[in-house]
Amino acid sequence: MKHAFVPLILCMVLAACGAGPRSYYLLTAEGPLPAGGGRGIGVGPVVVAEYLDRPNLVLQEQPNQLSIASDHHWAGPLDASIARVTAANLGRRAGTGDVRVYPWVSDGGLRHQVTLDVREFHGGADGHAVLEAGWRVYALPERRLVASRTFTGREALEKDGYQPLVAAQSRLLARMADEIAEVVVRP
Question: Is 59 contained in some domain?
């Protein structure tokens, strides 16, 4: 897979110079939120590393070299997309439809707030998607820190291309939500 992905990255970078049509990508949750209320969870703020804070997908070609996919864009701001997907995944795992994405109007009804600091979120020349994010869970309303951890994960792409990259990134967000949910659903 490694050798097949390297030429793909080169082709994608070279094709980006040709100013072709733009493609837009959307991170996806594992499914819809449960209906009804339940334990209130707020997700956000989400902070993304400056190299990710752009509309384009990012690929790491070498340990200290990145490429920006000029014709392959996120469908919206990356921080908001990560918050939306994480909220949906947490709602499913906690069995609650009362999940909000930052900024919300009031903390009323929220039992936990989850903040994220996304340090790495890109594709690699080795055929994997990478996610490293620090996360914190606060108990509300007192804003007491309950847990502070770092999720680090790699997810193999099912095949070459940007769509499989975004699908792998979505799976990484689901795996991170599994870890966070262990804290949020505790009594």
Answer: yes
